[in-house]
Amino acid sequence: MSSKAFGGALMLAGITIFVYYTFWLVVTPYLDTQSFIHNFYPPREWAMQGPKFLLIFGVVTLSGLIGYLFMSTRKPKQA
After folding, report:
1. What pTM was computed for the model?
2. Distance from chain centroid for Cα 73
3. Where are the alpha helices (DSSP H) in 1-79?
4. Measured in Å, how far apart are the chain's first and last C-alpha atoms?
5. Contact indicator for 39, 24 with CB cutoff of 8 Å
6. Which residues cross the membrane (predicted)?
């Protein structure tokens, strides 16, 4: 897969997730609670829980990577 096709696939995935999330938060509160559209979305509590968990996971992952890189870097020898 070329990098252009991969970038296009990532862009399409990002736009799809953005539209899904935005529709979930902006449009579904105004729909009737018995509407079939609500079957496609998780409970509204997850609208804030999901991004929180992703942020925490990202911070922990980046902190672990930075810590690993600091620990694996060789210190210069003292003369």
Report:
1. 0.64
2. 30
3. 3-26, 46-72
4. 50
5. no
6. 9-31, 51-71
Q: What token pair was written down for 40?
A: 């496609």
List the Cα angle 17/23/29 in 5-degree steps. Answer: 140
Between 3-26 and 46-72, two packed helices, what is the crossing angle to 10 degrees? 140
47: nearest Cα among 28, 23, 29, 21:
21
**Burial status of residue 21 (CB atoms within 10 A of its CB: 0-12, 13-18, 19 or more):** middle
45-68 pLDDT tens trace? 888 898 899 999 999 999 999 999
